[in-house]
Q: What sequence folds into this?
C-alpha cells in the first residue's frame, strides 16, 4: 500500500525534471539541462559544493556534477533557482490538472507534515522541508509530493547503503529487472560504456546478474530487500492517514498522475 500511495501521485512531482517550462527558465540564467537539474534540486540546501550534491543525489557520475556545481551558483542564487522551479511547476501543471485539488492537497500535505517530524538521516528531504509552504493550492500539492518523494528517496539511499550498493550498481540492478533500458539510465547519469560494462561484470561475478544481464535469484532477493526497506522507511509519513483516507488518497491522486503521463510530461511513460 505504501508504494501505491507514493506512485499514485509520483508524476505530479516527477514531471519537473523533464518540463520544457523548467528547462527554458534554467537556460535563461545560463544553465544547461544537467546544470538546471542539479541546481534546482539542490537549491534548498543552499550554495553547496559538488561533494554534497554527489552524496545526496547518489547515482550520478561525480564528474558531471563537478562540471556544473558549484559553478552554477556563480550564475544564479539558490533562492532564484527555487523561484524558477516554482514558476515552472505552476505553468506546467496548470495545463493538465483540474482546478479542484483541495481534498488531495490536504491529504498529501498532512502526510508531508508528518514526514517533517522525522528529519533524522534525511538530508535532502530536510532541506526541502525547511522551505515555506506556497499559498496556491496547486503548488502546495506539488510541494507536498516533493517532500514525500525526497523523504522516500533519502530512505532508499539508506537501504542501498545498508547493502553496500554504489550509485552505478543501483542503476545496473534497476536495468537488470528488465523494466528500463540501460542506455537511458547510463547516459542521463553520465556513466561511460566502460564504467557500465565493468559494473555489470562485477555484479555478475558476485552472482547478482546473469550472463543475460538480468537479475539472478540472488539479485532479485537483494533488490526486493532494498525495495521493502524503502517502503518500511517511507511508511511513517502516511501513518497520519486512516485506512479510508489512504484509499481516498490513491483514488484522488491516480487520475492526476495519469493526466501528467498522458500529456507526455514524463518521457517514456504513459
A:
Amino acid at each position: 500500500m505504501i508504494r501505491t500511495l507514493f506512485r499514485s501521485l509520483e508524476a505530479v512531482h516527477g514531471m519537473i525534471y523533464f518540463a520544457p517550462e523548467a528547462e527554458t527558465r534554467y537556460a535563461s540564467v545560463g544553465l544547461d539541462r544537467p546544470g538546471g537539474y542539479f541546481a534546482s534540486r539542490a537549491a534548498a540546501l543552499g550554495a553547496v559544493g559538488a561533494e554534497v550534491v554527489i552524496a545526496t543525489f547518489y547515482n550520478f557520475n561525480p564528474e558531471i556534477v563537478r562540471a556544473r556545481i558549484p559553478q552554477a551558483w556563480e550564475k544564479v542564487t539558490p533562492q532564484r533557482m527555487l523561484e524558477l522551479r516554482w514558476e515552472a511547476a505552476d505553468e506546467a501543471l496548470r495545463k493538465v490538472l483540474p482546478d479542484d485539488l483541495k481534498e488531495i492537497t490536504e491529504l498529501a500535505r498532512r502526510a508531508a507534515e508528518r514526514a517533517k517530524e522525522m528529519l533524522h538521516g534525511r538530508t535532502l528531504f530536510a532541506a526541502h522541508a525547511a522551505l515555506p509552504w506556497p499559498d496556491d493550492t496547486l503548488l502546495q500539492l506539488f510541494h507536498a509530493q516533493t517532500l514525500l518523494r525526497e523523504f522516500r528517496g533519502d530512505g532508499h539511499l539508506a537501504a542501498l547503503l545498508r547493502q553496500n550498493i554504489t550509485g552505478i550498481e543501483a542503476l545496473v540492478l534497476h536495468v537488470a529487472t528488465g523494466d528500463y533500458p540501460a542506455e537511458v539510465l547510463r547516459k542521463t547519469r553520465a556513466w561511460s560504456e566502460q564504467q557500465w560494462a565493468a559494473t555489470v561484470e562485477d555484479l555478475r561475478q558476485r552472482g547478482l546478474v546473469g550472463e543475460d544481464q538480468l537479475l539472478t535469484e540472488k539479485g532479485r532477493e537483494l533488490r526486493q530487500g532494498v525495495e521493502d526497506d524503502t517502503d518500511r522507511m517511507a511508511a511513517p509519513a502516511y501513518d497520519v492517514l486512516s485506512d479510508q483516507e489512504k484509499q481516498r488518497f490513491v483514488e484522488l491522486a491516480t487520475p492526476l498522475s495519469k493526466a501528467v503521463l498522458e500529456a507526455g510530461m514524463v518521457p517514456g511513460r504513459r
Notes: The longest helix spans residues 137-162.
